[in-house]
Each structure stands twice: as structure tokens, then as C-alpha cells.
Amino acid sequence: MPGPTAAPLGPVAAPGPGGAGRDRPGCSRQESLDRLDYGPGMGATELLVVRHGESVGNTAARAAQEVRAEVIDVPARDADVGLSATGVDQARALGTWLGELDADRAPQSVWSSPYVRSADTARLALEVSGLRLPIVLDERLRDRELGVLDKLTGFGVEARHPAEAARRRWVGKFYYRPPGGESWADMALRLRSVLADVDRYEDGRRVLVVCHDAVTMLIRYICEGLTEAEIMAIGRATPVLNASVTRLVRDPGERLWRLDTFNAVEHLAEQGAVRTAPRGKTDVVAE
């Protein structure tokens, strides 16, 4: 299988029946993980997981929610939606923070979703930081694919696809797959694959990963060995903020990571950048 593509620094393109996270009898997740053997000294030692800066899609989604519109007015397909002016400021603030990290804390490599809002966040942050690192663009870090629900608000889903809205409530957010789209479980499968490659190519390194909010949550789910119920509870309590930093650390040879920092945005305030969250967002609009 070919390795990931490295892009040079520069321009780059209340819980219901399905929502409670029902655990099944049998082998526990921890027991399953205990059967894995990564081998001594294998893998990355730190993940700095960053959600992209505010995008024009985020602002359009908020505007649509406020007027109860059915469709989000975005200027391009999801992969090509770029940063808002606020998102650019957030990416630069992230870069200032990265540039101020001590040498033994700074990232040694960078992986990013190829979606423009993430790739541009990585590019701008690196430019400001002074870190001369290539950006590895990997499509497995892309945002969730929504299929027939793409560009729809929650109001739009209820109005245009009521059967899907009902099915999502029954199945639950983690396992619900819209026609032509992905469930969170589908995303977890591709993220397990990319995290295995991060371990393969970034042995012993600190890795910056620039991605999306659902991807951030699922990286926690995988790396910490969480259950459906646990990650859904975290998601309900704490929306992932734009340009926020989540830090996971792991000793060499260990299987599971431990959470050091989640959803931190102090670096934004320090640089005068606005903090933004997916206000009014439903779990079917772009993440």
C-alpha cells in the first residue's frame, strides 16, 4: 500500500432507544485491546489534534439555523469550503502558540485533512509558527460525509426526509448512516487506518493533526478506548471549538493514550482571536 502524500509548505487545495450507547454482553473493549501487541517503542508519542478554524460553512450554518432555513447556503462543495476571516485569525493565533512551544513540546510532523478549511488552517499556522514542516494530506482525515442530508439543517432534514430523521432518532447518532453518507462508526474505521499509518511513519514523534470536530471526537474514542456511550456523552456536553487543541500522550510501547488537554482555546484569547462554536448546530449539518 502506498504511503501518504506529503504536501510542501505553501498553498494547498435525552438519550432515546438509539442514543444511550447500549453495551452488549461478551468481551469488553478493554479486553479486546489487551489482546493487541504493538511491540516496544512503536508509534507516535503525542497527538496535537486541532479542529480547523471557523469556515464560511460554519457561518452559513449558523445563519440558516437562526432563520430556520432548510438549506445551508454554502459557496462550494464541502471539500472546497474555506476559512472565514475569523477562521484565518484563529489559524494565525494557533500558529503563534505553536511557535512559542519549547523545542521538546513542538510538533515534529503535521498531518491534515485535505479539505480546504483544514489544510489552510495547517498552512497558516505553520507559516506564523516558523516551523518548517511538510503537511501530510490524508483523505481519511476528511469530514463526515452526509450523503442525501448534505447542506441541510435539522429543519431541512425533518421537512424533506422525515423517515430519515425518525430512523436517526431510533438508531442513534453513532450508528446512523444517511443514504450515501457515513455513520460515526464508518468514520472510526477509516480513522483506525490512518492512526495506524501515523504510528508506522511517525515512530517516536509528536504529531499535529488538523481535522474536523467529529474526527477529533473519534480520535479520542479510538485512542482512549472509549465506548459509544462515553463518547456520545462527551459530545453532548462539550462541542469541539474552532481551532481548539486536544492533546493525547502515550509512552513508547503503550497501546492506549491518555488525555492531557481537551478543546483548549486559551491561545485564541491570548492573540485576540474570537472563540467560535457550532452554535445552533445539529448533528446532521457539516462537522
Automatic annotation (TrEMBL):
Organism: Cellulomonas aerilata
Family: Belongs to the phosphoglycerate mutase family. BPG-dependent PGAM subfamily.
Protein name per UniProt: phosphoglycerate mutase (2,3-diphosphoglycerate-dependent)
Region (Disordered): 1-28
Molecular-function GO terms, alphabetical: phosphoglycerate mutase activity
One Gene Ontology term from the biological process aspect of the record: glycolytic process
Pfam families in alphabetical order: His_Phos_1
Membrane-traversing stretches: none
Record carries keyword Isomerase: yes
Binding locations of substrate: R51, H52, G53, E54, S55, V56, G57, N58, R117
Keyword vocabulary terms for this entry: Glycolysis, Isomerase
Listed EC numbers: 5.4.2.11
Domain of life from the UniProt record: Bacteria
Chain intervals with Low complexity compositional bias: 1-15
